[in-house]
Amino acid sequence: MSRLAQLTDDQVSESAKPLLDGIHQKLGMVPNLYRVLANEPAVLSAILAMNTALDKGSFNAETREAIALAAAGENSCDYCASAHTMISKSLKVEDEEIGLRLRGAASDPKLNAILKFARAVIVERGFVSSAQIDEARAAGLTDGEIVETVGHVVVNIFTNYTNHVAETDIDFPIVRVS
């Protein structure tokens, strides 16, 4: 059972209600993570805004989900591993590839470089070496893609850590990484 309230529709504040309604319209449900975040509507609004902004970046949905899987794997977040596995499957990503991504790797060389760099950002807490940046560039990442990777890592660390603090009830088919 979650250690923080997963607010029901009747419990959310007036300022959180339209945010959750928007999530429901987009996904057909409101995941428990967002019900936890609704405890502070400003935080819910901020994470939704950052995700919306990052959706307009250069990475496609499959790349964004791959970064989310790598972060979930590195941070041992079963909730996010479960959610992003389901989303990746809806994007037609094969189970073997999902497993690779949860370990911070991919069969596609460029995506592999993105995930390797994302994992380095997490492991090194942002203090990546010049050699790691050079390696990312040598694999074809632009400075923009390096920055975009960091942006996705930050959003996913936020959700991973929120789930750790809350022990959010998993409302997707469960994938265990921890």
How does this structure look, described?
The protein has nine helices and no strands. The chain is an all-alpha fold. The protein has a domain of 106 residues: AhpD-like. It starts with 16 loop residues before the first helix and ends in a 12-residue tail after the last helix.
Could you give a quick summary of the protein structure above?
This protein is mainly alpha-helical and 178 residues long. 65% of the residues lie in helices and 0% in strands.
Layout of strands and helices, then pairs:
Elements: H1 17-27, H2 32-37, H3 41-55, H4 61-74, H5 78-90, H6 95-102, H7 109-123, H8 130-138, H9 143-166
Order of helices and strands: HHHHHHHHH
- Overall 3D shape: globular
Give me the secondary-structure category: mainly alpha
Compute the gyration radius: what is it? 16 Å
Residue stretches low in confidence (pLDDT < 50, at least 5 long) are none
Give me the count of strands: 0
Residues in helix, %: 55-70%
What's the CATH architecture name of the domain at 61-166?
Up-down Bundle
Return the CATH topology of the domain at 61-166: AhpD-like
CATH class of the domain at 61-166: Mainly Alpha
For the residues shown, what is the average pLDDT?
Answer: 98
Key traits:
65% helix; AhpD-like; 178 residues; globular; 9 helices
